[in-house]
Amino acid sequence: MGYFVKKLPHKKSAPHWKVQFVSYKNEDIKDSTASKPKLEWDVKKPRWYALGFHPHMTLEEARARAKQLNAQLHIKNQEKRVRIIAKEQDKTRRRYDAVLPQEFVAEFEDRFIRKRDSQTEQKLRKSTRAYITWRAAQRLIIAISVEPSEWFYHTHRIYDYFFNQKMSLRYLQGVLRMANLWGFFISRKLGHPFLPVSSPRGYERQRLIDANLEKTNTARPSKPISPMELTNVDGKLNQKNANWLFLSIWFGLRPKEIDSLQDKATWNLQLLHGERKVLWVFQTKVVSLPHEERWKPIPILFEEQQIALRIIESGHFQRPLGKTLRKHFGVGVTTYAGRKGFTDLMLSKGQSLENISVWMGHSTLQRTWRNYKNKQRFHLEGY
Alpha carbon of 130 to those of 8, 116, 204: distances in Å? Predict the structure, then answer.
């Protein structure tokens, strides 16, 4: 939006230019069908003097004046936007202070919110998980704008907030726990009673799960890749990428664990009873255990695992890009695809779920069953 001076070379009388105003405002271009819509009109001569133009100006002088006007117009619009933003920020600050007084928030964070953890120390995250969850809880508290002592009477209003946000059940439970912690803290400060809001159950729980599943841009667990599917793209996939996926399928390793196998300090081989090879892999993700307890064993039981072992020794493997996986295996496949199918692959080979859980490095059997077992697939021994 602004003033422009257009040259008129074929005009006989002076001035050989005219002043135009061009607008890109939505209300002015709403009926336009152009690819880059705009509305322009000539500024009448009676308006020239008020704008600082006159017929005796040269073309260069008129354009210089138009440039000056546009700069002034830009500053004016910029100041208007700044005032609008400042007004919105002031409104937000008042809403924030009404339910989250800064002094109490500072004390709460000092007492309960961890400012650093292993991932922030390693520069893998800018903020701790606890702080991220606390920020989400603050948005919930501001949105409902109800005193914590009254939350119990507005439970469904809180559930409706989660429904509109389409949060995953696991995430919203963390946010709710953090909000309840704040509710208890501030209610105790103010001498008010407090009843925590319980985690959704029954119909509400299913409604929230369904809302999250309808969310198109949410991250989903990877679909599994089977050995047959990897064989089907043989020759189409870069060999290093294929080797990386082969390790994922037959050892069930996490993506970062496979990458770290390039460093010989993160894996070693052991002979069990002098005959069975066991691959020990250092779990980079498990940071809560002492260093010596972060090693997990994977026995070499099958011929394919012998091949995978030779791939590790050669170092000829590289993580594939996400778009490469989607191109060859379809949408929904990530670098966790091989690990995702490892449980059913080993069960089909007659291995027990307890051993598979150890090989995957899970702390509980439930974790393996809940997140890595295809519930629509069964395995029969002897058939």
Answer: 66, 9, 25
Span 219-269, pLDDT tens digits = 678 899 999 999 999 889 999 999 999 999 999 999 999 999 999 999 999
For residues 208 and 158, give the distance between their C-alpha atoms in angstroms, rounded to a whole number. Answer: 12
CB of 347 closer than 8 Å to CB of 356: yes
Output the pLDDT for position 383. 47
- Verify cis geometry, omega within 30 degrees of 0, for the bond prior to 15: yes
Distance between CA atoms of residues 172 and 208, nearest Å: 9
Cβ(340)–Cβ(254) below 8 Å: no
Please list the residues that pair with 39 across neighbouring strands. Answer: 23
How is residue 321 written in tokens? 């890009």
Which are the contacts of 67, defined by CB distance < 8 A and separation ≥ 6? none
CA 358 from chain center: how many Å? 30
CB 253 within 8 A of CB 247: yes
Q: How far apart are CA 299 and CA 250, in angstroms?
A: 11
Angle at 118 between CA 113 and CA 120, to 5 degrees: 70
The alpha carbon of 62 is separated from its chain's Cα centroid by a whole number of angstroms, namely 51
- Rounded CA-CA distance 179/83 in Å is 33
How many residues comprise the chain?
A: 383
pLDDT of 38 reads 81
Q: How far apart are CA 41 and CA 53, in angstroms?
A: 16
pLDDT in tens, 137-189: 999 999 998 999 999 999 999 999 999 999 989 899 999 999 999 999 999 99
Pull the structure tokens for residue 216. Answer: 């198109």
